[in-house]
Structure prediction request, 170 residues.
Amino acid sequence: MILREKMKSKSKRNMILSFVLALMLTLSVSTSVFALTPSNTTSTAQRNKIAKNWTYRSRGYAEQNCLSYAIGKGNVWTWPWGASNPTKAQSQTYLKKQGYTKFMNANVAGPLPKTEVYAYVLNSGITHFAKQYSGGGSIAKWGSCEKFSSNSANPYTNYVYGKLSYRCCK
Prediction:
């Protein structure tokens, strides 16, 4: 009888131990699968090559890029054109599918009715997106790097992102 109770007790202990180990494994796998990677950091020299004036805002996550940040998609990499940069028409087609209906070329003055998204062009391709920031400035996620703001809607050099191409809003 005592032997039987010892075996039951040992069996229960092994079951509980197995359950705890399985739970720990599940938690560690789910944490590593869904953990976000802190964004890359840039030096002051790199930042100055990208924009004429900038203010560091926050670190961000490497999984998010400028387009997903500008249109509010969260911490996902959104670039439906693969490894290439879209034309202005291709980028506007995508944004229309996301609910953006009003578009203005960069050379057209005047505000749009809601918070704007800005698109930038370099070598005939749209290279970057930002969103409107207080006072007509812009705020953007620079690729897999940090988030920066500027007091201008057109702060970028021709080194990486280029000039403002158009503005749009929902």
